[in-house]
Write a structure and sequence with these properties.
Aspartate Aminotransferase, domain 2, binds pyridoxal-5'-phosphate, 7-stranded mixed β-sheet, 12 strands, 5-stranded mixed β-sheet, 14% strand, alpha/beta, single chain, Aspartate Aminotransferase, domain 1, 2 domains
Amino acid sequence: MDPRHPFHPETSSVSEGFDPRLSVMAVRPPIYPVSTFAFATAEKAAQSFEIALGKLPAVPGEDPGLIYARLNHPNAEMFEDALRSVEKGARAAACFTSGMSAITTTLLTLARPGGVVLYQRPVYGGTDHFLRHMLPQWQVTAVPVEDGGWPDALRRHADTVHVVWLETPANPTLHLIDLQAVAAAVRSAVPTRHVPIAVDNTFLGPVFQSPLLHGADLCVYSATKFLGGHSDVLAGALTATDPQLVARIKETRAFLGTISEPFTAWLLQRSMATLWLRMVKQSKNAARLVDLLAAHPAVQCVHHPSRFTGEQARIFRQQCTAAGSMVSLELHGGRAAAFRFLNALRLFKLAVSLGGVESLACHPRTTTASEMSDEDLKASGVTEGLVRLSIGVEWWRDLAQDLTQALDAARAAG
Ligand SMILES: Cc1ncc(COP(=O)(O)O)c(C=O)c1O
């Protein structure tokens, strides 16, 4: 990149992370399906291990040498460079075998026995399960915090909080969290230690939301969603302001074996080049559909950042540049109406996951959020009538037609 003219992330997503001179002048990155790397000499092998284990500092500009693909490999590095270059405020990135392995590797690096993870509900069902059912096995307590409850929760747990976990927009209600307000509360309640704030940025990032510019330390992604974008890859990723923090998480990754393998990392980098095109088109499609959905008599309300009012609208204006393509609908008639609607869809596929080129629909209460406790479901607003839509890149009028006929069917039989 020319330092006199830093590229817009839309450009970096196509051009960064790969130098053709390293690979026979190919214009796109090759795949290196390799598990182990040769050393020029035995001394070089010993030195590479010392650097990898942190016993010797890496000399800036000098290649520490690749060792073994569970630690690092060219496709992981190329994707990580590309992702870092598009995430505003990021100085390092890491890739993982899934969103859950990005989340669990991060939490296992940062949490400590006897310590607390503060998090705001709702979070993705898998994250919720890990926080509430698995971390306690290592004497880590996950404490949920409500809107407005941060100063109080931080006062109570100031000595023991090791990480703050946020998801905004939250899956599946799209509830937004004011990152600057939470960051200010964390820094003022715990002034003597730096408590990392991690944000699951899967729904809007890195195109429409940049948490690292709003006080977060880490952005975590299910790269299975928009980053991969084609529902053909399972992967995770993170970006951070502090390379040392990423180095610590990568150390855990090396021992858990949660780095994505070369083909996956290559697919992710392939997808980066169309990330802006896809997310902008998907968000435009969603914007065209929300008013139509809200006006249908079968619909009680539509959850989409473009329709938020009051405090949620203020947060949206402060921290997001577009509303994205995740839409949740609250239908009159509870679970029965939601199921009638889902069963009547023809173009939308009935599937969990999101962020791919094709439009998907699901019933979170009985699928992705089915393991949440009744109290959490109630507190988070995950009701029986809630349906989640992931809007794809299809022609919006076809999507509108399909949604309208399925809503008519849900209402007619009700
Ligand atoms: C917001 C969010 N975070 C994390 C995950 C977990 O990602 P993965 O399925 O890639 O492990 C998901 C999966 O749906 C998600 O929606």
